[in-house]
Amino acid sequence: MPSPALPRHRSALPGLLLVAPALAMVLVFFVLPLAASVTGAFATEEGRSLANFAKIADLYLPDILFTLLVIGLSTLLIAVFSLAIAGYLTLGRNPRAVALLRWLYRWPLFIPFIVTAQVLRTFLAKNGMLNGGLELVGLVDPATASNWLDGRAIVFAFVWKQTPFVTLLVAGAMTSLDRGTIEAALNMGASRLRTLWDIVTPQVAGTLMTGLILSIVTMMSVLSVPMMLNATAPTTITADIAFRINAYGDYGVANALGVVSLLMTSGFAILYLRLGLKERT
Amino acid sequence: MKTTFATALAFGVSLSPAFAQELTVLTAGDQNMVDYVNEYLGPLFEAEHPGVTVRAVGTGPGDAGSQKILERFEAQAGANASVWDTDVAVVHEKFAGPMVTAGYLAAYRDAITTGSLVTRANADMALGAEVKGYVMPMFNSQTALAYNPAMVETPPQSYDALKAWAAEHPGQFGYNGIKGGASGVSFVMGWIYAYGEGDAAKLMNGPFEEAETGKWDKAFDELAAFTKNATLTAGNAGTLDMLAQGEIAIGPVWVDMFYSWKANGQLPEDFRLVLPEPGMPGQPMHYVIPEKAPNADLARAFVELATSPKVQAEGIVERFNWYPGIDAGHVQAELPAETWDKLFTDVTPDQLAARGKPFPIAPYNIAILEAYERHLAQ
User: Fold this and answer.
1) Rounded to two decimals, what is the model's pTM?
2) According to the 3-state scheme, what is the secondary structure of A2-22?
3) Which positions in chain B touch A127 (Cβ < 8 Å)?
4) Which residues, if any, are the signal sequence (chain B) (predicted)?
């Protein structure tokens, strides 16, 4: 005789048990430290106050703006390059060039940020390969050349490192598009550039945004690149956080800077969610 | 059955390294500090103490490394651990004071024979905090200006001369600001000693007075203008790197790094050092023993060996080009004259005595760094 249906909570138990370790990990290793860090941002020797944030306003506003600028510019360039590469992979007519590009573009994905920074440090130095190349074509005078080791170097590293990641997502989305719309546009005489911009890009915009948001969050947390490539001031928030802790042993302001960067990434995330909702309605 | 068990146990004990005595040494600083313990000091100590294994743990370069050690002590003190996991730690000067004040350390200097060989004042006071008895200096480190003689004909013997030289040679002076390592920090501290309108001696010895921190505005404005005309480098190694590449002609470096780079062939043989007036800071690194070290006797024996004249001569001066931690007189006798002279060719002992300064005491140190951030980062 078949047994009556098990009560709901019993059937849910194995599921809950399966989820529990992961949930506990998230709570203990992510939510708890995050909460500690946010409350730490308001902790000062005189009790709870906004003093840490006042110090940020006093010392680190240019750095916050600099971070926004560097990441904004990097994101823009990543969008342009990833669309261009994915577009060529989808619309390119020379199969050999497409295969070669497909093979090449993923390489930076497998190279850690710190290695990228080390490579770029020699590449962008005053007597580095970039200036050497520019000198050969007569664009740079070796006597007055300066190095590229400032915000431009960070943008260079971020774009080089993150473009393949976004391209991977965008190219994936492009291959799953209905080829019919693309063929129709090309048959009607639209140029490939126009087809990419007017037909393909709007259809993969969601994926592109997801890729860019994930890139922004990654770039916001990179410390090695600004430490190794950007000798000048201003610098990025991550470098300031490390400096507050290492030079001053000051976790209060470091936490407050962490909250600022958290707010910045949440800003991007909310923007993304809004866009996503608008698309669905 | 019992005998078999006992034999197996005895066999296990004789094989298991966990039962052998292990001396744990935490060390802040670059990889060379870990190498120093693992490759030189550790084997030497193990040879003298059979059955003991020395385990060196590097906690990372710069102040961050010492900060990690301090936090490790804080955690164990907070947990009320009766025995800590560290026998000996090597920390930067800046962290010795806070550790003594918090009561984490054992006063052991008078209990070891080499304790009386220490003569420098920085072993008694560490940036304004009294640490006498609690620390033994491992070595003394100094910053100076390294220069390329092909590009600098007359090396600047003072900050004034450097300012004049840099004005004539834009972009040829390079330093790493304050966020990329202590050689840049040291240059900035020297600048404030030279041009701050307060009393430099007070910055070095205390007491801390808030009013003093308002006397640096003009110096920092000048430094901002000076820095606009300079090249900023990425870190202590970055300055040496740019010097080696000929991208800059002169810049502040750690003396020991300078000699190590030269020895490895990373810097040309003819590069030189100059220590400008009124002086630049240097700092010792200290051996400390936690109050609750698991093997306190062994730990003291370890530091005693590490600060013996022979080890200071062979390990500290000859191998790593650091200035000795104990009185130089005891060390000089252990070394051939040419090795000794090499360390003092560019910066003579007299110059070192006159122009080798300590860093400012902790609160001034913080105030100067923040003032730098305020004046130069915006």
Assistant:
1) 0.79
2) CCCCCCHHHHHHHHHHHHHHH
3) 245-247
4) 1-20
Q: Is B62 left (phi over 0), alpha (psi -120 to 50) or beta?
A: left
* Cα–Cα distance, A155 to A80 (Å, whole number): 14
Chain A residue whose CA is closest to B247: A126
Q: Which residues of A touch B224 (CB under 8 A)?
A: none
* CB spacing of B242 vs A63 below 8 angstroms: no
Co-location of B20 and B130 in the same domain: yes
> Is residue A149 less than 8 Å (CB to CB) from chain B?
yes
Residue B166 belongs to domain with CATH number: 3.40.190.10
**Domain edges within chain A:** 69-233
- Residues B10 and B94 grouped into a single domain: yes
Determine contact: A252 vs chain B, CB below 8 A.
no
Query: B234 to chain A: nearest residue by CA?
Result: A231
Does residue B169 share a domain with residue B26? no
CATH number of the structural domain A69-233:
1.10.3720.10
Local confidence pLDDT in tens for the 281 residues of chain A: 455 555 555 678 888 889 999 999 999 988 898 898 899 999 888 888 899 999 999 899 999 999 999 999 999 999 999 999 999 999 888 899 999 998 889 899 999 999 999 889 888 888 788 888 888 888 877 667 777 888 899 999 999 999 999 999 999 999 999 889 889 998 998 899 999 999 999 999 989 998 999 899 899 999 989 988 887 778 899 999 988 988 888 899 999 999 999 998 888 888 777 766 666 55
Q: Rounded to an integer, what distance in angstroms lies between the CA atom of residue A19 and that of residue A21?
A: 6
The range of the structural domain enclosing residue B98 comes to 2-140+283-344
* Residues B32 and B92 reside in one and the same domain: yes
Number of domains in chain B: 2
Length of chain A equals: 281
B103 in a structural domain: yes
Other CB atoms within a 10 A radius of the CB of residue B338 amount to: 7
Strands (E) in B209-300, as ranges, are: 231-232, 250-254, 272-274, 280-288
Together in a domain, B78 and B219:
no
Residues 232-251 of B with CB under 8 A from A: 232-235, 238, 242, 245-247
Chain B: nearest CA to A281, how far in angstroms?
45
Contact B180 A58 (CB under 8 A): no
Residue B317 carries which DSSP code?
I
| Within a domain: B192 | yes
ipTM greater than cut 0.90:
no
**Position B349 in a domain:** no
